[in-house]
Amino acid sequence: MERVNCECGHVNPYGTILCESCGKQVGKELSEKSVDLRYEGSARRSQTYKKTPLDRIWNFFSSVKVGVGIIALILIASMIGTIFPQQMYIPQNVVPEDFYRDRYGFLGQIYYQLGFNRLYESWWYFLLLAALGISLVIASLDRVVPLYFALKNQGVTRHESFMRRQRLFSETKVTEKSDKQLDFVISKLRNKRYRIREENGNFLAEKNRFSRWGPYVNHAGLIIFLIGGMLRFIPGMYIDETLWIRDGETSVILGTSGKYYLSSDKFILETYPKGQENVVKNYQTNVTLYERKGEILYGDTPRLVKVKDEQIKVNHPLRHDAFALYQVSYQLNELNKMTFSLVDKKTEKSFGRITIDLLNPEKSYDLGNEYKVEILEYFPDFYFDGQGQPATKSQIPDNPAFVFNMISPENPVGEKSFVAIRNTIEPGGDNQLQMKFENVEMKNVSALAVRKDNTLWILGVGGAIFMIGVIQGMYWNHRRIWIRRSGDAIFIAGHANKNWYGIQNEINPILKETGLQELTDQTDRKSENKVEGGE
Amino acid sequence: MRNRKTRFILRASLLLIMISAITYTLYQHFFTEKIRVQAGDQAPNFVLEDMQGNKVQLSDFKGRGVFLNFWGTWCKPCEQEMPYMESQYKRYKNLGVEILAVNIAESDIAIESFVERHGLTFPVLKDKDQAVTEAYDIIPIPTSFLIDKNGTIQKVITGPMTEKDIANYMELIKP
Amino acid sequence: MIAFSSNLLYAAFFLYLISTFLFGGAIRDRRKQYEKPSKWAAAAISVTILGFVTHLGYFITRWMASGHAPVSNMFEFVTAFSMMFVLGFIILYFLYKVSILGLFTLPITLLMISYGSLFPTNVSPLIPALQSDWLAIHVTTTALGSAVLASSFIAGIIYLLRSVDQTKRSMKTFWLEVIMYSMVATLAFIVITLVFRGLQYEAVYRWVDHNGQETETTYSLPSLIGPNQGELLTEGRMEALAYVPAVIDAAKLNTVIWSAVTGLLLYFILRLMFRKRISAALQPLTKNIKLDLVDEIGYRSVAIGFPIFTLGALIFAMIWAQIAWTRFWGWDPKEVWALITWLFYAGYLHLRLSRGWQGERSAWLGVIGFGIIIFNLVFVNLIIAGLHSYA
């Protein structure tokens, strides 16, 4: 059962349909008139053995139909994911469940409940991609090996039945000119870069066999790409952080384990000139990158060595040591310093002014002449909490509020005053002194994304191999011409794995010039008949 | 027959490789938390100033358990568990467990009034430039690390704790 | 310069129009492909090439005038896409010398150019994310790839017109008519938009958006559908017949309804004129063509277009996204639809290996593929908000 012998003498592997060497049918009955040469009639492993459960799994993934089915499922799932926005694109400050219900009603609620709001991160979407990967591996292996041997073992002299069943076929009576004609054809084919093999006066002209490997090369590329995609789930391969940095600030770069520091010299925002001034032209952060030297003790004052100055813009990230810093966002005019003057409410006489650094206010400010201002409490982002107590929402000074204690020679204990933006409360009754708001200094804050992705090169390699494979398979096609003398006839048959018109246009003018019968497309006649019958 | 056997082995091992790679990825993606500093790791050493201006270094506490808490005055759950930490601190201080409460980049005034309001006696450390916060990869607060006498992290707790939780955790890292 | 550039586009439009008629004359030719084509066909392809060169002239002069590749808004993109569509046709013509392709490609090109011209045609300044050489590289490659893939639609339509039996009603004739109707509806959209623009029609509505904010929207067609809690501010304009919730863009829905209804009207006028289905009326044009050849042209366009599309819409897109948006893939709707297009044609190429999927089924797939491409090019920008919706 392991081997199949053909009458031409060639021994074929089990499962072979057409003899590898001469193309005569050796397998089960073929019903179609023209032969199917997709896999050269060779034994596709999976189709041949159907024994163990393992074989069944193998056969399942090897099938093109199953592959197309998986593609279709991924396609449909991907479409569903674009019906409503994915959770990563909805506003940050809302509860996702409420967002989908409030904005998209009942359908939105169902969408959320089915988990479609995070469809592309779902386990089942991942499994679909994984199934595609398995299918790629198995289907490719299952085909490329037998195809390789079939093309390697193919014979020159093909059986008459094989020739007649080819889609492109012609038959010419042998005359005394025949030898010359064939020589001419062969030399022409050679000019067209066909490789010619001869055996007992029969010919096989073949070109672009390498294009048959295209699909397997591109599948290999895809598999590498998918592996790259999987690797990003391994801890440490991939970093994604956002660094908010104020003008003039030096900050450790998140995700670099304290090894790198960044200082921002300035954030710059430019808009287009008049008429289009609401369109941002450019935003960038001028930064200096530092590397921390010596043993890292977190919290300790770092010993920094400058690496480089750079301007980070959109489309121009800073790259260093496998990570990159991208300009992603900004916030203009964050409050930075506030200036107040201590004045007498009635006379409006000023006793001096204080400037408060909102990120790190002093406890007390001495104005001289026994005038002094103390800050008792500070709320950078002030609000009244559930108990009606003043509190802060974060450490960012978006809405600063202070409890001042104003000390004067007349009142050495001091008068307390609660000062927030556009709001002053005097808990001890009517004060004599007042903290009068003078001005505010603001700073811009730039948002930089910190990215490290050690999988990129794998993805790049995969993508490049895919492109090579797909071009190799699509822009060239494998063409073969068989010429055989049989009795008083010359048979010519042609085969192309795609682009049948191309091969006809290449061969027929040569045959016409020689006086041999041109190749005719045997499926043509069939389909023409069909249509005419329908009309 | 030899052919059939090698074929079986080849197929089985290829499928096995693919399935285990997929399972591993799924597991990494869906069942592990993506934090850099995890239980089992050596706690990253750091030095920070406390409210009195003294330098406090983690490695100085070798031989004692350390309950390392990250907090902010704006964080209500952090505020809630402060009194519990304070009362447990009193009990476990002499049993060899230290509490270090790292404040995330706030002003001295805000921290001091908070410490005063809650009468905290354990060391409160100031992480002005968030270098330690970053080193411990803190995202939500409160987050607490239980560090044993060898400097190994025993457990990472994110979210609020009850007083009983804290007592249990103290017990866990008691030398 | 911009004015000159626009004139070149007009010139291209008229040249395409002329070559459409020339191709009409050329389709009687029944000779074999590798023999010399007729005078008509030679004239037709020459005028088409001239049109393409003019079109390319528009593209280059506009690039020079604006300082960036003219592919940054809807008008520019659609005109660039139509240019690539013609280029794809020229390539296929020289491969197969089939005149009837031109007879179908060029009218659709005309339709596309007219459609694109309805969008604002002024040069828009580039936002920072678009300021990159990758804008030109990514968009032109993607446009070329999708345009060549879309050529399989032309082949598909020709195949179906030829092969579907028009003597009796069937699902096939129905869907073929749906395709014809959507062409007619696009034409209707162009016509009514131009008519009301000529009349300088404007109706302003004040309405409440989904954040509860009051905003104003200007309608350029009479409002059948009004926005959420809409209040008509312009006097003497038609009041809306119905109002929709804030989640639906009422002005766009209104335009769609107008196009659909006038399209239907136009369709029935054509039906009355021909006294048969539009596809039945077009069928005689296809009678000289060999089905196998059209099938192969369809397949070949996918085979040529697929690698270009992969390169432009996925690989170049990923490289640029990594540079501009910090990640090579972010599941933005436009990205997802590029993936869907890619998966669809990958499926197509695999199905070609299966028995029974060549010929008519392939032709239908070519039509569906075109639908997906157009959906991604036009509708994803107009309907689904995302990072690509700057047009």
Structure description:
The complex is a heterotrimer of chains A (535), B (175) and C (391). Chain A folds into four domains: 43-152; 158-215 and 465-534, TATA-Binding Protein (2-Layer Sandwich); 238-333 and 447-454, no CATH class; 338-437, no CATH class. Chain A has eleven helices and 24 strands. Chain A has helices at residues 45-48, 53-62, 64-80, 96-113, 123-153, 160-164, 178-191, 214-231, 456-474, 500-514, 522-534; strands spanning 3-5, 11-13, 168-173, 195-199, 202-207, 238-246, 250-252, 260-271, 280-293, 303-313, 318-320, 323-344, 350-357, 364-368, 371-379, 382-384, 390-392, 401-408, 411-420, 423-425, 433-453, 479-486, 489-496, 520-521. Mean pLDDT of chain A is 85; it is low at 527-535. With 175 residues, chain B is of the alpha/beta class. Chain B folds into two domains: 1-32; 47-173, Glutaredoxin. Chain B is 42% helix and 21% strand. Chain B has five helices and seven strands. Chain B has helices at 2-31, 76-92, 108-118, 131-135, 163-173; strands at 47-50, 55-57, 65-71, 97-104, 124-127, 143-147, 153-158. Chain B has a seven-stranded mixed β-sheet. Chain B starts with a helix and ends with a helix. The mean pLDDT of chain B is 86. Chain C is built from eleven helices and five strands. Chain C has helices at 2-26, 39-66, 74-96, 99-117, 133-163, 171-198, 250-274, 278-282, 291-324, 333-351, 360-382, and strands at 203-208, 214-219, 225-226, 231-232, 242-243. In chain C, the strands form two sheets. Chain C has a three-stranded antiparallel β-sheet, with no helix packed on it. A two-stranded parallel ribbon of chain C has the order 3-5. The radius of gyration of chain C is 22 Å and the shape is globular. Chains A and C meet through helix 3, helix 4, strand 9, strand 12 and helix 9 of A and helix 5, helix 9 and helix 10 of C.
